[in-house]
Amino acid sequence: MWSSRWLFILAAAGSAVGLGNIWKFPYVVGESGGGAFVVVYLFCIALVGIPIMMAEVLIGRQGRQSPINTMRALVKEVDGSSGWTLIGWAGVFAGFLILSYYAVIAGWSMYYIVLMAQGLFDGSSPALARSVFSEFQQSPWLMLGWHTAFMVITVAIVARGVTGGIEKAVRWFMPFLVVLLIVLVIHGFISPGFDEAVAFLFAFDFQKITVETLLTALGLSFFTLSLGMGAIMAYGAYVPGSASITSMVVTIAALDTIVAIAAGLAIFPVVFAYGTELTVEAGPSLMFETVPLVFGNIPFGSIFGTLFFVLVSFAAITSAISLTEPGLAFLVEEYNAKRSRVAISLGVFCWVLGIGTVLSFNVWSDIHLVGNLNFFAFLDYVTQNIMLPLGGLFIALFAGFVLPKTIVGSQLGLDEGYKSVLWMILIKFCAPVGVSIVFFVTIFNSIS
Length: 448
Ligand code: PHE
What we know:
Blueprint: H1 5-16, H2 19-32, H3 35-63, H4 67-78, H5 86-117, H6 126-137, H7 140-159, H8 163-190, H9 194-202, H10 211-224, H11 231-236, H12 245-273, H13 286-296, H14 301-335, H15 339-360, H16 375-402, H17 405-412, H18 418-447
Bound molecules: phenylalanine (PHE).
Phenylalanine binds next to helix 1, helix 2, helix 10 and helix 14.
C-alpha cells in the first residue's frame, strides 16, 4: 500500500511524466503541424484519458492484485466472460514492447548527461548540435552501450521493489524537473522565436486536422498518461481505500499536461529563433538538438544542461518501472517467483528486443516492416496508436458496462446525483465512442 494518497499521485505522475512529455510531445506536435494537433490532444486527455485513468485506478483498487489477476478476480465476482482478462495480458505484452524502445531513447538522454557535463555544447551552433546527434545515431555500439546501461539501472531498481527508493526519489526530482523546465520556458519567452512558437502551438486551424492527426493525438494521450496497458491499474492496486479517485486522477493528468506544454514552450521558440537551421519536423532528434543548443549558450549552461538530462533520465526511469510492473507483479504472484529473478529475465527480453530499435537509426534504418515504418517506427506506431487505445477502450467498456453500479459507485464515492450521470456519460459514451470513431475513421481511410 502507498503510504498516502500523495505518494500514489507522485508515483502515478512519475509513471506519466516521462519521455512522452519531454521528448515525444514536442516532436509529434512538430510533425503533426502544431495547434490543431494540440487542441485535439487536450480534448483526448480530458474526455477520454481522465475517465479511463479513473477506470484503471478503480479496477485496480477493487481487485488489489496485478492487472491480470485483478481482471480474473473481478470477472469471477461479476460472473463475466473470461475474455476480459485479455486486457491484462495485452497490457503486459504492450509494456514489454514499449520498454524495449523506451530504454534506447532514455539511453540517449543518459549519454547527453556526459556530453553536457563535458561542456561539449558551450557556445554551440545549430550545426554543431545537429552533427553531434547524427554522429551518435550512426554509432550502433555506443547507442547499444547506453541502452544497456539504462536497462541495467531499471532492472536493479525494479528488482529491489519499487516503493522505498522510488517514493523518496520522486518526491525530489519532480519539483526539480519542473524548475528546470521553467528555466527553459523563460529562456524561450525571451528568445525571438517565442511569439511564433505560441502561434504554432496554440493556433487552432481546423483544416489542419487530418485522420492521422486524430489517431496520433489519441495515441499520444494514452501514451503520455500511461494508460491502456495496466500500469496505472497495477499502481491503483496499492491505493488506500479512502482516497478520492477523481481528485487524484485530475491532479495527475494536470501535472502531466503542464509538463508536456512546458516542454513545447521550451523547445519551439528555439526552433523558430534559428529559422531555417532547425526544423519543427526534426522527429525524434528535436529535443536532442534544441536543448543542448540552449544550454550551450546561456550562463552556467553546462551545469543546468547536465542537470536537465539527469532529470529526464530520471523521469524515464520512473516510467520504465511502471512499464514492467504489470508483468512483474503477475509473474511474482502466479509462480511465487523471486522478484529479482523475474526482473532480470524481463530486462534481458526487452534489452534484446531493443537492439532492433538501436539498429533502426542506422544499419536498419531503411528496412521497412510495414509501409514506410522501420522497426522502431513500427513498434512505436503499433503500441501507441493501436494497443494502448484498444486496451483503454476495453477498460472503459468493462468499467462502464460490466462492473455493477454498486462497485463503481462506492469506489468513486458517487451517489445518484449529477456526478454519477456525468461519470456514466464519460465512461459509457465519450471514452468508448471517441476511441471507436478514431479507429473506424482510420481504418476506413486506409482502405479507401
Ligand atoms: N507515460 C510515459 C511517458 O510519457 C510512458 C509510459 C507509457 C509509461 C505507458 C507507462 C505506460 O513517457
